[in-house]
Write a structure and sequence with these properties.
The protein starts with 13 loop residues before the first strand and ends in a 10-residue tail after the last strand. A hairpin with a 2-residue loop joins strand 4 and strand 5. Strands 1, 2, 3, 4 and 5 form a five-stranded antiparallel β-sheet that branches. Helix content is 0%, strand content 49%. It has one domain. With 81 residues, the chain is an all-beta fold.
């Protein structure tokens, strides 16, 4: 998804599969715009926020909530000033 604040491209949904444990999950953001631009403090643009979780665990349906943080999509983090 293209973000209007900094024009970076971020995934807007995530799929997690762990075949050895028969886990299949889809994580979907609960709020569209959870991007933070912190040029005046940490100089890092990142996305963080709540997600809903739906999927299956060993064939049984499950639901939940979670939290995701993404960095490095606007530009790689650099220690230099």
């Amino acid at each position: 998804m293209e973000k209007p604040k900094d024009r970076s491209h971020l995934p807007s949904k995530w799929r997690i599969d762990v075949p050895s444990h028969r886990i299949e999950l889809t994580l979907t953001p609960t709020v569209k715009d959870q991007e933070l631009i912190t040029q005046e403090s940490t100089r890092v643009t990142y996305w963080e926020g709540s997600v809903k979780i739906e999927g299956t665990y060993q064939g049984n349906p499950i639901k939940g909530v979670g939290y995701v943080e993404l960095t490095g999509y606007a530009k790689p983090f650099s220690k230099g000033i």
